[in-house]
Amino acid sequence: MRPITPWEPFAEVQEQVLHGEGAFLVTADAAGRPNAMTIGWLQLGTVWGRPVAQVLVRPSRYTHGLLASGEFVVAVPLGRMGEELAFCGSRSGRDVDKFRELRLRSAPGTAVRVPLLPDCAIAYECRVVARAELRPEGILDEGIRAKYYARGDLHTLFLGEVLATWDLRE
Ligand SMILES: Cc1cc2nc3c(=O)[nH]c(=O)nc-3n(C[C@H](O)[C@H](O)[C@H](O)COP(=O)(O)O)c2cc1C
């Protein structure tokens, strides 16, 4: 596992989330039990002079509550783990222990208490520095409102300072 900058794998990570099968958003409960949900959207950039990873999570997700811990890991498989991504994107950690069910391997995080997924290619360890709730009147594009929010459950934006980035292939 090799430390890299958050920007190094930028293009391949965006390709994976946009055209691939997504990435894992890993969190943990107070007892340290991990959960992984699939995300299709991920923003990486500089905010407040810091490297930031932003994820959008609907309040209905089990992950949403777990993010109150203030920490998360984004684990990106790069063309692998399609089956695991499909499972973590359709089943809730409320009902099933996804790590046990999928026999997901984990390794301790270095900067957060959330584990890394060593079978992924890239991992971002993040500390939540800000969150913002989307409001209907804040969505200015009618098409987006109709397509994504007909049933409400508007996403919360979680901005995580990237504390460490890893290339797990080496
Ligand atoms: C490809 C894909 C991308 C997804 N992206 C998101 C996302 O960005 N935000 C979100 O809230 N849910 C997203 N989901 C849905 C969640 O992964 C799904 O509801 C999951 O079961 C939630 O798990 P949890 O209840 O354990 O948190 C996505 C699902 C798939 C299959």
Tell me the CATH superfamily.
Answer: Electron Transport, Fmn-binding Protein, Chain A
User: What compounds sit in this structure?
Assistant: flavin mononucleotide
Work out the helicity level: 10-25%
What is the total domain count? 1
Q: What is the radius of gyration computed over CA atoms, rounded to a whole number of angstroms?
A: 15 Å
Describe this structure in words.
The protein is globular and about 45 Å long. It has helices spanning 10-19, 62-66, 82-88, 98-102, 142-148; strands at residues 2-3, 23-28, 34-39, 43-47, 50-57, 71-76, 122-133, 156-167. It has one domain (2-167): Electron Transport, Fmn-binding Protein, Chain A (Pnp Oxidase, Chain A, Roll). It is built from five helices and eight strands; from the N terminus they run βαββββαβααβαβ. By secondary structure, the protein is α+β, with helices and mostly antiparallel strands. β2 and β3 (34-39) form a beta hairpin. The protein starts with a strand and ends with a strand. The structure holds flavin mononucleotide (FMN). Flavin mononucleotide binds at residues 22, 35, 37-41, 56-58, 61-63, 89-94.
Task: Give the helix/strand layout.
Layout: E1 2-3, H1 10-19, E2 23-28, E3 34-39, E4 43-47, E5 50-57, H2 62-66, E6 71-76, H3 82-88, H4 98-102, E7 122-133, H5 142-148, E8 156-167
Antiparallel strand pairs: 1-8, 2-3, 2-6, 4-5, 5-8, 6-7, 7-8
Bound molecules: flavin mononucleotide (FMN).
